[in-house]
UniProtKB/TrEMBL annotation:
It catalyses: an N-acyl-D-glucosamine 6-phosphate = an N-acyl-D-mannosamine 6-phosphate. It comes from Paenibacillus lacisoli. Pathway: Amino-sugar metabolism; N-acetylneuraminate degradation; D-fructose 6-phosphate from N-acetylneuraminate: step 3/5. Its EC number is 5.1.3.9. GO terms for molecular function: N-acylglucosamine-6-phosphate 2-epimerase activity. Converts N-acetylmannosamine-6-phosphate (ManNAc-6-P) to N-acetylglucosamine-6-phosphate (GlcNAc-6-P). The keyword Isomerase applies. This is Putative N-acetylmannosamine-6-phosphate 2-epimerase. It comes from the Bacteria. Pfam families: NanE.
Length: 237
């Protein structure tokens, strides 16, 4: 097994991402977020955009999993959808490149097979983001370095669950010869433990760590529900 993947075994990977329009959007802010994640014990950082990858690489000593989220008019694939994004991430210094590894048509007709081989040609590791067991198995046949359950629940044909798809994690871990990374809707420490017990090589946590507006919303909603239980429809003013 590759040394970086071995380093990630049984650990937490922090996904430090903020999209345009979100309060923490910006490479400098994400670099600070990554530094905080490193101090908290994360083993690696998953980051969106070449600019963020480059900034984070300067701020932390951890491996960086890079991806580029970019919309194209001729495809629903938006996580590292073309060879262009691979080039950007390689130049930025990403240690692994995450890409949509579903069987959906990609922009410009580029194939998943070509995407994986191109990452290999650049001398980099690939993380295949999948949404079903069938996609995971197929990605494994292409020689990807690892598989992540990132897209379960985010394709129309995969299970629409509120929490992580631990059934997929368990099935993929049993079926594949490469590491399986659990990712997607992991909100609580107990879910990290459950994912590792299901066979995950490592666990990615994103919004529950790096999106404070969503974290605050959960606590604010808990407060609202408590008020409703105690006082009914009348607020205690």
């Amino acid at each position: 097994m590759n040394a970086i993947l071995q380093q990630l075994r049984f650990t937490l990977i922090a996904s430090c991402q903020a999209l345009p329009g979100e309060p923490l959007h910006g490479s400098e802010i994400m670099a600070r977020m990554a530094l905080a994640a490193q101090e908290g014990g994360a083993s690696a950082i998953r980051a969106n955009s070449a600019a963020d990858v480059q900034a984070i690489k300067k701020a932390v000593s951890l491996p960086v999993i890079g991806l580029v989220k970019r919309d194209y008019p001729d495809s629903d694939v938006y996580i590292t959808p073309t060879l262009r994004e691979i080039d950007e991430l390689a130049e930025a210094g990403a240690d692994l490149i995450a890409l949509d590894a579903t069987r959906r048509p990609r922009p410009g007709g580029v194939t998943l097979e070509r995407m994986v081989s191109y990452i290999q040609e650049r001398g980099l590791l690939s993380m295949a983001d999948i949404s079903t067991l069938e996609e995971a198995v197929y990605a494994g046949t292409l020689g990807v370095s690892c598989v992540s359950t990132t897209l379960s629940g985010y394709t129309p044909y995969s299970p629409q669950l509120e929490g992580p798809d631990l059934t997929l994690v368990q099935a993929a871990a049993a079926a594949l010869p490469v590491p399986v990374i659990a990712e997607g809707r992991i909100q609580e420490p107990g879910q990290v433990q459950a994912a590792l017990q299901a066979g995950a090589h490592a666990v990615v946590v994103g919004s529950a760590i790096s999106r404070p507006q969503l974290i605050t919303r959960r606590f604010a909603e808990a407060a609202r529900k408590a008020v409703m239980l105690i006082h009914g429809n009348e607020r205690p003013y």
